[in-house]
TrEMBL record, chain A:
A Pfam cross-reference name: ResB
Membrane topology summary: Multi-pass membrane protein
GO process annotations (BP): cytochrome complex assembly
Listed transmembrane segments: 116-139, 180-199, 260-282
GO cellular component, one term: membrane
Localization per record: Membrane
HAMAP family referenced in this protein's UniProt entry, alphabetically: CytC_Ccs1
Name of the molecule in the record: ResB-like domain-containing protein
Keywords for this protein: Cytochrome c-type biogenesis, Membrane, Transmembrane, Transmembrane helix
Signal peptide span: none
Cross-referenced InterPro entries: Cyt_c_bgen_Ccs1/CcsB/ResB, ResB-like_domain
TrEMBL record, chain B:
Topology in membrane: Multi-pass membrane protein
Family annotation (InterPro entries): Cyt_c_assembly (IPR002541), Cyt_c_biogenesis_CcsA (IPR017562), Cyt_c_biogenesis_CcsA/CcmC (IPR045062)
Extent of the signal sequence: none
Subcellular location: Membrane
Residues passing through the membrane, by range: 94-119, 140-163, 178-193, 205-232
Keyword Transmembrane: yes
Domain named Cytochrome c assembly protein: residues: 24-230
Name the record gives this protein: Cytochrome c assembly protein domain-containing protein
rRNA-binding recorded as keyword: no
UniProt keyword terms in alphabetical order: Cytochrome c-type biogenesis, Membrane, Transmembrane, Transmembrane helix
Length: 557, 241
């Protein structure tokens, strides 16, 4: 008789597609649940081995101890005594998951849970999310409604029906923060949680339980099966141990597995994704962000620049810090292109004491007390010139519009009467802080000067000396409490995805007279498995007549 | 193919030394890297077992990609470009190389799935060989796609962390990034459909074939738009025909 589990979890198992293939009724007749303390009956043979790889470390260690104990434990499964402990656990877990009060209330969340953890639903959700994202890249985001009136006009709809009404009501113009998209993501997250809870965690319990198969037919029904005449199951055990399997031998039957981590890793993947989602939510609701362009020599207070992103954002003491841009400078390639831009920053606290000083550049930010300052951009603030030995004058440089990433700045020095409507003057253009190009009143090219050279230039009778080019630094500030969580999630995701590539292989064997019947299955490396098994089985020694009868007596007795 | 592998390796190393930075900063270099990855994927099973279905895919892919890169279509960008400040980081090596390796593996796997679908729907092949061939294709495509998925995950995550270090925000719905996420999602769907025995073979092959198109869009299509943070990869077709 066996009713190892209450019907609740049984239905769950059958529902979950992950386990569909591995659950046949005859799987359960002999489940050794280890809970009773060891008794002193020694058994003839008990093989355990430590795997060389470390991923199995945790589970194998605990299992190994339990194995030694259980070899002595009498009647572990027959009377269900040892299983008594197993039973309440899944039941209570299921019951507990159902809520605290009332039968109906208990059942409702369970139903919701089981619906949510349905795999095709999850697949459908993933498809929808992917389609929405694709749509979000096809439709230009964040434009004014006018843009959509033009692009998706009502009298000539795209694809026959897609007008601007669709776009604006469904929120497709801000797809990635629209209710539909976020709702879909939330649904996916709940599915993920439900699936992890209902199918993956019980999977851990089941996979950790090692089962012996006691009939030759059951073994032959496995994906891969072989019989070795004139062999001993103990020799097989030794060969398997040498190949890195963890082997358990009880009487004439043997169970070995390898790569158990490959079974658990998908759970880790799902948990890591949940962690990332939590961290992402925290970032979205609890962080501060700000952007500022500061000319060289000026300063700002952090708190003035940072703005909250959500309702969980709370400012810290560090917000009172004053940031001073000591110097902004750029490095150039020999060809004249920009190589890198740097800003020398000093941080002062409320008392005016300098608490930090660092030169930052792109990909090298400043971190102070949870706030990070990134170098993201640069600009041209002003040109310092002397005109006819008067000055110095600071002419503000304005950015001129260009295509792509190239920048162009310009300024204008009026010559003559600056109140007349048609004022003429000297124009100065610059692409970077290196060299300034000057044009005369007619717009004709006059010359190029470098700010450090102090060489004068005569244009239309005016003598100009370019003294300095003052740049301004584009800084982005950010504080984000969710980052450590998200990083932890990323690391876990990478690791668990790696591990889930491993294949979980299980092998059963039974000594049937002088023949050993072997069956095995694996969950990933299916094609290579028969070859690998054949190689292993070739190494099992064939027993010669005289020792055969002794062997079979010893084992079956 | 081994000779091809060494040639491409030599090309990449030479370019690295000459440029002073890792040769992965624009589309031309990433295409060379892609064909290099194809040749690696070709060689690994080749060293284990000589006859292999995968080689029928990887060898032509490598040659085709290399040919496309060197062809007249993209002459403007053959010259080695200098790195803009945003690209001067150690992360460049890890992120882009992982992404390209992932793309190569996923492309192989999804091509195998396309082949699987083609074979399923052909009437003129006998039953037994057909079934066996389909099973082998299915298995190989599963393994290669799993590997590619792993690389893609690492690539996306390293790119995200890099973005956080450089600009302070690890996700910003940039088209290329979004499409990489879409690719990841599609292949996650593929892996999940495989867990269900009923849907297993054909449906997963359909999903993987969609994945092929999506990778194409992600890698090339987005670059044609020329906008967003990944605009280093953009190019225009110029012909000197």
């Amino acid at each position: 008789m066996y009713t190892l589990k209450p019907s609740f979890s049984k239905t769950l198992f059958l529902k979950s597609p992950l386990l569909r293939s591995s659950f046949k009724p005859q799987f359960f007749p002999y489940t050794t649940q280890i809970s009773s303390p060891c008794s002193s009956t020694p058994l003839s043979f008990s093989i355990t081995c430590k795997l060389k790889t470390s991923e199995d470390g945790k589970s194998s260690k605990s299992l190994a101890k339990k194995i030694v104990l259980s070899e002595g434990a009498p009647a572990v499964s027959e009377d269900g005594a040892g299983n008594g402990e197993a039973q309440p656990k899944p039941a209570s877990k299921g019951g507990g998951g159902g809520g605290g009060f009332g039968g109906l209330v208990k059942r409702f969340p369970r139903k919701v849970l089981s619906r949510l953890s349905n795999l095709p639903l999850a697949i459908g959700e993933m498809f929808t999310v992917a389609a929405l994202m694709a749509l979000g890249t096809a439709i230009d985001q964040g434009e004014a409604p006018d843009y959509y009136f033009q692009k998706f006009p009502e009298d000539n709809p795209v694809l026959g029906f897609f007008t601007w009404r669709w776009v604006l009501t469904l929120g497709f113009d801000h797809m990635f923060s629209s209710p539909i998209f976020l709702g879909m993501l939330a649904l996916l997250a709940t599915s993920l949680m439900a699936c992890t809870y209902t199918t993956q965690i019980p999977l851990v319990k089941v996979a950790r339980r090692w089962n012996f198969l006691h009939s030759a037919e059951a073994i032959r029904k496995q994906e891969f099966s072989e019989s070795l005449p004139k062999a001993s199951v103990r020799d097989l055990g030794v060969v398997l141990m040498g190949a890195g399997y963890e082997v358990f031998l009880k009487g004439p039957s043997l169970y070995a597995f390898k790569g158990l981590a490959g079974r658990f890793a998908p759970i880790g993947v799902h948990l890591a994704m949940l962690l990332i989602m939590v961290g992402g939510t925290l970032s979205a609701t609890g962080s501060f962000r700000g952007s500022v362009t500061v000319p060289q020599g000026l300063n700002f207070v952090m708190g003035d620049v940072l703005s909250p992103s959500g309702f969980l954002s709370t400012p810290t003491k560090a917000f009172d810090t004053e940031v001073h841009v000591n110097r902004f400078y750029m490095d150039y390639y020999d060809s004249g292109e920009v190589l890198q831009f740097h800003t020398d920053l000093s941080l002062f606290d409320l008392n005016g004491k300098e608490v930090m000083r660092k030169t930052i550049s792109v990909n090298d930010p400043l971190r102070f007390d949870g706030i990070t300052i990134y170098q993201t951009d640069w600009s041209f603030s002003a040109l310092q010139i002397r005109k006819d030995d008067e000055g110095p004058f600071n002419l503000a440089m304005a950015p001129l519009k260009l295509n792509g990433d190239k920048k162009l700045f310009g300024t204008f020095l009026p010559v003559g009467d600056s109140d007349s409507p048609n004022v003429k003057g000297i124009s100065m253009l610059a692409r970077d802080l290196q060299s300034i190009v000057l044009y005369d009143k007619e717009g004709k090219f006059a010359g190029v000067r470098r700010p450090n050279s102090n060489l004068p230039i005569d244009i239309d009778g005016t003598r100009i000396v370019i003294e300095d080019a003052i740049g301004s630094s584009g800084l982005d500030l950010k504080t984000d409490p969710g980052v450590p969580i998200v990083y932890a999630g990323f690391g876990a995701l990478m690791l668990t995805t790696c591990i889930s590539y491993l294949s979980h292989t299980q092998i059963w064997a039974l000594q049937d007279g002088t023949t050993v019947v072997i069956g095995g299955k694996t969950n990933r490396a299916k094609l290579e498995f028969p070859d690998e098994m054949n190689q292993l089985l070739d190494r099992v020694p064939e027993l010669v007549e005289s020792s055969l009868s002794k062997q079979s007596d010893a084992i079956s007795g | 193919m081994i000779a091809t592998f060494f040639c491409i390796t030599g090309l990449l190393v030479t370019r690295w030394i000459y440029l002073g930075h890792f040769p992965l900063s624009d589309l031309y270099e990433s295409l060379i890297f892609l064909s290099w990855s194809f040749s690696i994927i070709h060689i690994v099973p080749y060293l284990k077992k000589h006859k292999n279905h995968l080689s029928a895919l990887t060898a032509p892919s490598a040659i085709f990609t290399q040919g496309f890169a060197t062809s007249g279509l993209l002459t403007e960008i053959h010259q080695s470009e200098i790195l803009v400040p945003a690209l001067q980081s150690q992360w460049l090596m890890m992120h882009v190389s992982m992404m390209v390796l992932g793309y190569a593996a996923l492309l192989c796997g999804s091509l195998l799935s396309v082949a699987l679908l083609v074979i399923t729907f052909r009437q003129d092949i006998k039953n037994y060989y057909k079934a066996q061939f389909i099973q082998q294709l299915d298995h190989w495509s599963y393994r290669v796609i799993s590997l590619g998925f792993l690389f893609l995950t690492i690539g996306i995550l390293s790119g995200t962390v890099w973005a956080n270090e450089a600009w302070g925000s690890y996700w910003n719905w940039d088209p290329k990034k979004t499409w990489a996420f879409i690719t990841w999602t599609i292949f996650a769907i593929y892996l999940h459909t495989r867990t269900n025995k009923n849907l297993q073979v054909e449906n997963s092959a359909i999903v993987a074939s969609m994945g092929f198109l999506i990778i194409f869009i992600c890698y090339f299509g987005v670059n044609l738009l020329g906008i967003g943070l990944h605009s280093y990869g953009s190019f225009t077709f110029s012909s000197n025909l």
